[in-house]
Design goal:
Length: 292
C-alpha cells in the first residue's frame, strides 16, 4: 500500500506486510504514552481484526485489534488503558469516513483472519532498555537483563527495608503484574519462578503480600510511576522474559529413544501397507536403531 492516513494524534503508514504507526510529539492533548512510544511497526500477522466505528464530536475511529500475545505492551496493560491511550486507535474527522473504510477493507483482506489464535511470540517490539522510573517507595531500573528495585527512605515499608534492595535477572521471572497508577493501589510486581530462593517459605498458590510490603513490587502514587513510564517498563521486561524463555527452551534430540521408537512404528505401518519393501524396511530400521 505505502499510503499514509493521518489522525489527530498519530499517522498510519500502510506497507505490504505491516502498519507503521507514528505518534505525534508535542501536540496538545497527545497522551504522554504515545510520545514515549514514538513509532511502532505492527506486522500484519500481529493483528486479529480491524474495526471502524463512530467516535465523539464528529469523528470516526479506525482500530486495529492485536492478537493476544502479539504485543508485550498490550499484555502488560491487560485491558487497563483508557480509550484515548489505546495505541491501536486512529481518530479521524467524520468527513474521512470513506477513506478510513477503504483502508479498513484493505487491511482486513491482508490479515491472517479471525481465529488465528494467540501468538506464540511477541511480534511487536516494546521500548528498548535501559529504562527506569521513580515509584512511590523506590526506584525501578531495567538494563535489558535484570530488574533492580532500590528503596526510598521516605516511602518504603519496613518489610522492604528488611529485605533490602532487589536485583532479579529476567531468567528468574515468569512475568510481571502491572496495575495502573490511575486506579487505587497501582503497582508493578515481578513474578518469580517456582523454586526461586526468594520464595523460600512461601506456600505454593499462596496469596502474595500486599504490594507495599512485597519486596518483589514497587507501588505507585500521585506523580510516581505514571502510565507512560511504568507501562513501557513492564512491557520491556515481559518481552525480555519471553525471549529468555525461548532461548533456553530445550531442543528435542534427534536421538531421543521415544522419538526413534515412534519413527520405527511409523515405518512398520508403511511396510505393512506395502509402501515400503522388505529390503527398504530392514535398511531404514537398522539406520534408526543406530541412532540410539
Amino acid at each position: 500500500m505505502g499510503d499514509v492516513l493521518a489522525g489527530s494524534h498519530a499517522a498510519w503508514e500502510f506497507e505490504p506486510d505491516s502498519v507503521l504507526i507514528r505518534f505525534a510529539r508535542g501536540n496538545r492533548g497527545t497522551p504522554k504514552l504515545f510520545q514515549v512510544l514514538g513509532e511502532r511497526r505492527i506486522p500484519l500477522e500481529a493483528l486479529e481484526s480491524v474495526t471502524l466505528s463512530p467516535g465523539k464530536r464528529g469523528t470516526v475511529v479506525l482500530r486495529a485489534v492485536p492478537r493476544p500475545g502479539a504485543d508485550p505492551l498490550m499484555d502488560a496493560a491487560d485491558g487497563q488503558l483508557p480509550e484515548n491511550c489505546d495505541p491501536y486507535r486512529l481518530v479521524l474527522p467524520a468527513d474521512r469516513e470513506l477513506v478510513a473504510e477503504y483502508y479498513a477493507d484493505e487491511l482486513r483482506a491482508a490479515l491472517p483472519g479471525e481465529g488465528a489464535g494467540p501468538s506464540a511470540s511477541y511480534l511487536v517490539s516494546s521500548v528498548e532498555a535501559p529504562l527506569q522510573f521513580k515509584a512511590y517507595d523506590g526506584k525501578a531500573a531495567f538494563d535489558g537483563e535484570k530488574v533492580t528495585f532500590r528503596w526510598s527512605w521516605t516511602g518504603a515499608s519496613s518489610a522492604k527495608w528488611k529485605a533490602g534492595d532487589q536485583t532479579v535477572a529476567v531468567s528468574e521471572l515468569t512475568g510481571v503484574e502491572w496495575r495502573s497508577p490511575d486506579v487505587f493501589d497501582g503497582y508493578l510486581r515481578l513474578l518469580r519462578r517456582p523454586g526461586d530462593p526468594a520464595l523460600d517459605g512461601v506456600a505454593p498458590g499462596a496469596v502474595p503480600p500486599q504490594a507495599d510490603k512485597d519486596p518483589a513490587a514497587v507501588v505507585f502514587g500521585l506523580g510516581y510511576g505514571p502510565v507512560h513510564e511504568s507501562l513501557p517498563f513492564a512491557a520491556a521486561v515481559l518481552e525480555a522474559i519471553r525471549e529468555a524463555s525461548s532461548s533456553s527452551a530445550p531442543v528435542p534430540s534427534a536421538h531421543d529413544p521415544a522419538g526413534v521408537a515412534e519413527r520405527i512404528r511409523h515405518l512398520g505401518e508403511l511396510h505393512s501397507a506395502g509402501l515400503v519393501t522388505d529390503e527398504e524396511f530392514r535398511a531404514k530400521k537398522a539406520e534408526l536403531l543406530a541412532e540410539l
